Amino acid sequence: MGQNTRESQKYSISSYQSFVLLFSTIFGAGVLDLPRNITDDVGNDTIWVLFIAGLLVWCILMLITVLIQRFPQESIAEYLIKILGSKRFVWIGRILSVLLLIPIAGAWLAGSAMITRTFGETVHIMILTETPLLAIMVPFVLLVCLAGCSQISVLAKFSELLFPLSLIPIGMIIFSTLIHGRLLNVLPLMGVSWEQLISGVLTSAYAFTGYTVVLVFSGFYQQPKKALKVHSLAFGFTFLLYWGLCVNTLAVFGPEEVTKMMWPVLEAAKILQIPVLIERMESIILLLWVSTAFTSAANLYVAFVEMVCGSLKWTERWRKGVAILFSFVILGIALYPDRIQEIWAFQKWYGAIALGIAICIPLLLLMIALIRKQKGEIKYAKKTSSH
């Protein structure tokens, strides 16, 4: 019965839902502090350094997309054994696949944990100042765990529902800062060294992490042939929002002030005033950001749970056990840093490691598949509208 449930949700994600899933995974906790983090590294050159980081991540995403299109409607747990193993020595493929899946799984768990800690710190400092950090993070982890117990099709519909909410605060901030920004605050440019450039790219890489979830979600696409277009649109839209936030925050405050702010985006929100309706706009935007942080952490965790169950050939009844067990791991990792400064330092290391994993593993698999002339076939094609 459990396996039938798993099969019934196959090919359940439309092209629009795949767009929303990718967007909501990338556009997460990095929203609030990206302007400060990257400006601290490269100053005004954030304007073009972010473009380089975005182009690099887009190229990696396209590499991953080429791999998943070669094995359409299969998740990485399914085609990994085919690529690395053989009919005669299946056990070799299983062992090698586990070795390659562990770093991906670890990156997703760590990503969910960092979003959890960022959520806890933000709510603790901005709203619930007297509430212990643990008491704030436990309900968040419980909700992420609940998402992990759900099927991917349910998550896709939930992300689709919350998608408009994530756009409202960002649109309001960009609009308000366009009015109050000054062009002189983003000048001069081209003043960074190579070391600063690399550091800025790695810092930006953390904000874009999460795109590797398509390695799992692609196994449920109704129209995998459209993945290249959909992934490009989702990433491009995410990048433009990140770039708009960073540039507009710089235009309002200047690089010196931005680097002194803990969450520049929330400070920018204070500029937007609607006296008759809302007294403190940053509070409303913070509440809407909570949904964005949750969908990002939930998407990473659901991808992790699905990959674990798929690689071990576990039926649907094991999903809840896996989700509950590893939710304690997320909470443990989230509680490990003592100070928020340690979290910021860890984010840069995480961005670099996640970038390396996203390049090396898909590239290795694609090269082996090309050499061995391996590819899959589309098992189901939806003929109706992609939405």
In short:
It comes from Polycladospora coralii. By secondary structure, this protein is mostly helical. It contains 16 helices and no strands.
Report on this model:
This protein has helices at 2-8, 15-26, 30-42, 46-70, 76-84, 90-126, 133-148, 152-180, 194-208, 214-217, 227-253, 255-258, 264-269, 281-311, 319-335, 340-371. With 387 residues, it is mainly alpha-helical. It has a single domain, classed as Amino acid/polyamine transporter I. Helix 2 (15-26) packs across helix 14 (281-311).
- Runs in which pLDDT lies below 50 for 5 or more consecutive residues are 1-5
Please bin the fraction of helical residues. Answer: over 70%
State Rg: 21 Å
Structural class, from helix and strand content? mainly alpha
Transmembrane segments: 12-32, 47-68, 89-111, 131-149, 161-181, 201-221, 233-253, 284-309, 321-337, 349-371
GO cellular component, one term: membrane
Main location: membrane
Membrane topology: Multi-pass membrane protein
Per-chain topology:
Elements: H1 2-8, H2 15-26, H3 30-42, H4 46-70, H5 76-84, H6 90-126, H7 133-148, H8 152-180, H9 194-208, H10 214-217, H11 227-253, H12 255-258, H13 264-269, H14 281-311, H15 319-335, H16 340-371
What characteristics describe this protein?
Amino acid/polyamine transporter I, 387 residues, 16 helices, disordered N terminus, transport, mainly alpha
